[in-house]
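Our preliminary data section would be incomplete without showing what the modeling component actually yields. Below, a chain of 169 amino acids is followed by its predicted structure, encoded as tokens that our downstream tools consume directly.
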Amino acid sequence: MVWDLLDDIRRVWSSRATWVWVGDIAQWLCAVGAAWYWWSRAVTFESFAVAMLACALCQAGAVAAVVWPGRAAGQPELVDHHRGVTVAIVCLTLIFGLCLGLPIADKVLDEPDQPMAALFMAGNALVLTTFFGLCAATALSSRSSNGSSEQLPEDSSWTDTADTVSLDD
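Predicted structure:
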């Protein structure tokens, strides 16, 4: 019973689809953290570059889950899963965070310039890194699905457990 539970947990954590979620949620948290930081501070080029870098690293983790060598590298279902999760997170953030957040911040706050700049710049960091992540995942997945996963050596130490995408479970 306990071993089955541990096996299920291991299978979930080693799944590529899980790591797409982890990367995308971490990217969203970086953008929210940047907005939180800029809420009472001026947005500088350096701080924007740090926010972009943090978001890009998290999105790179999600892209790596799609294209990392193995049996499921570049599978269309996994690419579609990455695209769906990433676009859903960004669209919901833009709808609820920016489209609703900016007008509310404008009406509620006495001096809304700084919070509005914080929301706008954090939204830019999220959208730009997402765009590049989606482009990279699409381009690299077509490359990895064209045979690079078969070029792994037979005696490779890479274990490809739970490398299938099952979105129905």
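The chain has one domain: 16-145. Confidence is low (pLDDT under 50) at residues 147-153. Preliminary results of this kind motivate Aim 1 of the renewal.
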